[in-house]
Structure formats: structure tokens, C-alpha cells
Amino acid sequence: MNNLFDYRDYRDFLKDRIAELKKARVKVSCRAIAAELGISSAGHVSQMINGTAVITETQLPKLMELFQITKKSEQEYFSLLVRYHQTGPMNEKRELLREIAGKSGKRGVKVSRDQYEFYQKWYYAAIRDILDIAPFSGDFKSLAQMVEPAISVQEARSAISILERLGMIIRNEKGVYQAASKILEADFAEDSRVVLSGYAEAMINQAKHALNRMDPSERSISWTGFSASEAGFDLIRDEIRLFRERIMEIVEKDTAASRVYHMNIHCFPLSKDLGEASHE
Length: 280
Prior knowledge:
Elements: H1 10-23, H2 30-37, H3 42-50, H4 60-66, H5 72-86, H6 90-104, E1 109-111, H7 122-130, H8 140-146, H9 153-165, E2 169-171, E3 177-179, E4 184-186, H10 193-213, H11 230-253
Helix pairs in contact: 2-3, 5-6, 6-11, 7-9, 8-9
């Protein structure tokens, strides 16, 4: 069965669960669901699944039963997803997003404070991720050339030494190095700001390299400007966090990776807080 906690949108889950039930030869159709829910129109059920029609509080328990959402933790999580997508007020959405993030669990391995050396050089992360794709057993010249832009042989050698010491890569019985985990996250503690800001600046410079040196087909760079309230900005930050989680979901399920990527996400003010002046 597909894992509900891997989803951030109940509509995606319902569509996948329908396909899964059909594959298991369980009879499921919009007409049958409509009959169970006491709805006269199968088309209305289709709209509920697509998110264009509301799922009411009275329909929700029966719907979860039909889609075999039986565990209490799953029912609570699914209910949160439905409430989030059907709620209008931003303050309520923000609180629901926090609950969703809290219940969905964590992925990957966090970088602890004693491992902050990892962020001293931008290419440490690149090499760690390269080892998740390409076998490496000692050809430092080739490894250095795999990085974009290329680094020196000495830098590649130093990176392997530091990554192994920090426990971020391991060497198997055949002498081949590989990443210790597929996904890595940073623990952005308040006192880590100075350490991580240097890494962030380095990756901004790499984005400049991508903008100026790479073909548009090889990278995605876009931006948008807007005005927002404090509540709206908080909601946007929560959405960004969930978006990053969805990116990690894609990465986890991608078994044919062939290239290492880095994604910067920036959202910052271009004006002072205008407060009441904006409403006069």
C-alpha cells in the first residue's frame, strides 16, 4: 500500500490509492463511492477527488473507510490534508501546515553541529552527492572533473578525506566509496548562522555560474515579486518548507539519477515594513 505520510496533497493520494486498489482487483468507481456516501452524482465524487468539490465532515469518515485509511494516525493526517486544502483563512492554513509537517515525519540525515566543517567548501556537498551516483575507488583526477565547475585533484582528495572523517561517506568491502545516506539536511540552529551563511553565499555564486555558463535546458532559474502581510509571508515560508519535502520525496524515489543538482530558495523583503501606511 502507498504510504499516506509521503503525501502533502490528499488528491494525489486518492488518485494513487484508486489505481492501487484497482490493481489489487478491488472494485472501486466514482459511482460505487457515490452510492456509499449517499451522493446521487458520480461526477460529484470525481470533483471531490480532484479537489473541485468539498468533502464534508460527515462524508470524511466514510471516505477514509472506503479508501482503507484505517489507522488513527493516518485518519488524523488525512483529515489535516483535507482541512488544509479546503480552508480559506491564511492563519488557519498556517497552523494546519505546521501540524502536517509535524506529523509527516523527517527524511534523510541531519548535519550536526560538530559536522559544520562540511559547509566550509561548496564542493564537499557536490562530491558527497556524486558518490551516490558514480562508483569511486581512488581516481581523484576523474572525480575532480565530475564536479561542475571542475575542482583540483588536491581539492577532491581533501574532500574525500573530510567526508569520510565526518561519516558522510563510507568505504565498502570492495574499496568503493559511497554516500552514507541519499538525503542530507542541515540543522539550522541559531548559532550556526555564521557557518552556514558562507555556504549559502558560495552556492549563490554557483547559481551565477549556472546562469552565465549553462544552457537554459540544463538549469531552472526564475523569480517573482509580490507584496504580502506578515501572516501571508509566514504561510509562504511554510509552503516552501513543504515544497522542499516534496522535492526530497521525488529524490528518494528516483532510482536512475545521473547528475547532481543544487537548489537555492530565496524569499526576502525589498522594502521596509510599511505597516499602516499601506492601508491609508
